[in-house]
Design a protein that fits this description.
ATP-binding; 11 strands; ATP binding; GCS2; two-stranded antiparallel ribbon; about 350 residues; alpha+beta; Creatine Kinase, Chain A, domain 2; glutamate-cysteine ligase activity; 15 helices; seven-stranded antiparallel sheet; EC 6.3.2.2; single chain
Length: about 350
């Protein structure tokens, strides 16, 4: 059984006003006093963000319990200094982000200017174990067409700087401002993958391998493939669904590679269009079907993803849970829909944030 780990970025907000608060250093100081959590919480690019990482898990029940527990711990630590956490991929309310003072973040601010200052966005990254770099690159090559569906499922950022964007995942549009972000061409081998990464670092445009922000990449720290396309999910069960589907995609891709099946050779241009469509429509309109790259109702595309990973999910015991979670999302909506429904009902972005604070820990 492949292990799965999840990294989530949370927004620190005032519990009354909903405005982002630059208090990550204080929250981290409290968290690290408890020895068991020293390796759980991390500082992020902006002082209004808090990141955490789960341990590698084989079972999705255990992963779900850990995500819920750590979200609760984050809220407790934040509450001790007068703020709280929200699983929001962008701030609905206007904010002036402040950048952390370490050397890496200051280099990024100098190098990328306003693109760095505006990167107050929160994502969900999923790590799945692989046996080798060769298997990992084979997986990266084969999961490419399906990643936009994960973006649609997780979409949780319809507002930006106090305005309705018209997108379900505006975070993904902001993220694309990094020069190394987005989908990749086929690599074909671990050697070519590492050559490409080395060539990118050698340009001096990015600082190191960790700044290669491919949609799916080999982790620079762990023996995993890391999928980085999802918004942070409003509800913990959606994050578990994304992790379940990512593991299914990784296992399916590895089996295809071992069986000698070639990856689908969609161009990066088409993959970018699929990403854009997923960000724009989420689950409320058409997506580009991963096989045909033609506009198709979102429900049909989600069903195609489940069909694609059905055997892997059945073998891990996750199939029925994934089907039920997808049906629930299609019926009741993802984070973007929740935010818009609160906004339409109340006309208050503050109410949007406070509602999402409650659902973050539910």
């Amino acid at each position: 059984m492949r292990t799965v780990g999840v990294e989530e970025e949370l927004l620190l907000v005032d519990p009354e006003t909903g405005e982002p608060q630059a208090l990550s250093a204080a929250v981290l100081a409290r968290a690290t006093r408890e020895l068991a959590e020293q390796d759980v919480f991390e500082k992020e690019l902006h002082n209004q963000m808090l990141e955490f990482a789960t341990h590698p898990q084989s079972g999705m029940d255990e992963l779900a319990e850990e995500i819920v527990r750590i979200r609760g711990e984050a809220a407790r630590h934040a509450g001790e200094i007068g703020c709280t956490v929200a699983a929001l991929a962008t701030s609905p309310l206007p904010v002036r982000p402040s950048i952390g003072m370490n050397r890496r973040y200051q280099w990024m601010a100098e190098q990328y200017g306003i693109a760095t200052r505006e990167q107050l966005v929160c994502g969900c990254h999923v790590h799945v174990s692989v046996e080798s770099d060769e298997e990992g690159v084979a997986v990266v090559d084969r999961v490419r067409p399906w990643l936009s569906v994960l973006s649609a499922l997780s979409a949780n950022s319809p507002f930006w700087q106090g305005k309705e964007t018209g997108y379900n995942s505006y975070r993904s549009r902001v993220w694309q401002r990094w020069p190394s972000a987005g989908p990749t061409e086929l690599f074909g081998s671990a050697e070519r993958y590492h050559q490409r990464v080395a060539a990118m670092v050698a340009t001096g445009t990015i600082l190191d391998e960790a700044m290669v922000y491919f949609d799916a990449r080999l982790s620079a720290r762990y023996p995993t493939v890391e999928v980085r396309v999802a918004d942070v999910c409003l509800r913990a069960e959606t994050a578990v669904l994304v992790a379940t589907l990512v593991r299914g995609l990784v296992e399916t891709a590895a089996r295809e590679w071992k069986a000698g099946e070639d990856p689908v050779d969609h161009s990066v241009s088409l993959l970018r269009l699929a990403d854009w469509r997923a960000a724009r429509s989420g689950l409320t309109g058409d997506l580009l079907h991963p096989a045909t790259m033609r506009r198709t109702p979102a429900e049909t595309v989600v069903r195609a993803l489940l069909d694609h990973v059905e055997e892997a999910l059945a073998d891990s015991g996750d199939l029925e849970r994934a089907r039920a979670a997808c049906a629930e999302l299609l019926r009741h909506g993802n984070g973007a829909r929740v935010q818009r429904e609160v906004w339409e009902r109340t006309g208050s972005l503050r109410s949007v944030v406070t509602t999402c604070v409650r659902q973050t820990q539910s």
